[in-house]
Write a structure and sequence with these properties.
The chain has 11 helices and 13 strands. The chain has 324 residues and is an alpha/beta fold. The two termini are 31 Å apart. Bound molecules: zinc ion (ZN).
Length: 324
């Protein structure tokens, strides 16, 4: 680990935002620009922090490229448009990220977002949410939709505190924590499904035709995920529940758009971690030692990891669940 000590890393990689910032700090130069640049659909806008990629008619994904060091967005998100409304997904790391996506939504659909959905509390998905409040509007601002748990965690935990974010969240439209709810966009219905496993409370947004799933951080593509708040057995169950037919496009929380093979590779990767964690737990090995000894099989391809501390976190999450 070149530019940062292991102790610093363990202390600071608490949230997904920190996880990515530290990944960027230790990423090999060759990878910084390249990661998450593989595209499936036409790119309609490109910025240093990410690209807006068309997924289907009326659906776009913002695929962030944070390893270059631009922290405007950090996480992926997107736009789902219908005849009577436009959903923006994720609040991003900074208000400028949300404001950028809202401006693009208006350019592409003729409409400022009418709904904003935040999938979970992590700073890179939630902290910029006030950026959706248009300075030109006095009425008709989009309300933030998320679960009560996620709203409360953002308000309690996310740093630095921000008055505009708090004000935006005070008007949150709460998404039911049990059972799917639907946002009706006229000619298109979007299911908002409460799940968990990456955190206590995660949401997925699901469309049937075309088959598109916005996974939040339940799915990462090509980057080893952050297990800091993970409940790993719940994570696996939630991920399995997201699996759809081969035509499906999955928008992961981090990394490029995924289809079935990338999704399956991620599931297999989670399975490898589980198997190794259970074995290490039974043998009484520490999370640090188990993480240091762990490698992913070459058959699972390239997973941007940079440091074994990410593995240590995954093992620690499993050990929390396995107890003892
Ligand atoms: Zn996260």
């Amino acid at each position: 680990m070149s530019r940062i000590s292991r102790r610093d890393f363990v202390a600071r990689s608490g949230s997904c935002a920190a996880h990515l910032a530290l990944a960027a700090a230790v990423a090999p130069d060759a990878l910084r620009g390249a990661w998450a640049r593989t595209t499936l659909g036409p790119v309609v806008a490109r910025e240093p922090f990410g690209s807006l990629e068309q997924v289907a008619e009326g659906i776009w994904a913002l695929i962030s490229t944070p390893l270059g060091g631009d922290r405007t967005t950090l996480s992926n998100g997107g736009v789902i448009a219908g005849r009577s409304g436009v959903i923006a997904i994720e609040g991003f790391n900074q208000p400028a990220g949300a404001a950028w996506l809202a401006t693009k939504a208006r350019e592409l659909t003729g409409r400022w977002p009418t709904h904003v959905v935040v999938t979970h509390y992590h700073a890179d998905h939630a902290n910029g949410v006030a950026g959706y409040l248009s300075p030109e509007k006095t009425t008709g601002q989009p309300a933030v939709r998320t679960t009560e748990r996620t709203r409360d965690l953002v308000l309690q935990k996310n740093q630095p505190p921000d008055e505009a974010r708090t004000a935006a969240l005070q008007k949150t439209v709460l998404v039911p924590a049990t059972g799917a709810s639907t946002i009706d966009l006229g000619n298109r219905r979007v299911r908002v499904v409460p799940r968990n496993g990456h955190t206590d409370s995660d949401l997925s947004l699901e469309i049937d035709d075309p088959s598109v799933v916005f996974c939040g951080d339940l799915v990462w593509n090509g980057m080893f995920p952050n297990y800091v708040d993970a409940i790993p057995s719940r994570l696996s169950a939630s991920v399995n529940a997201l699996r759809r037919d081969p035509k499906t496009i999955y928008v992961p929380g981090h990394g490029s758009l995924a289809r079935g093979p990338e999704f399956d590779r991620y599931v297999a990767m989670l399975g490898e971690v589980e198997q190794a964690a259970r074995k290490a737990h039974q043998a009484g090995t520490s999370a640090a030692d188990a993480g240091a000894a762990f490698t992913l099989p070459a058959s699972l391809g390239e997973w941007t990891l940079f440091n074994k501390v990410f593995f240590e976190r995954a093992f620690a999450a499993w050990f929390r669940e396995l107890g003892g």
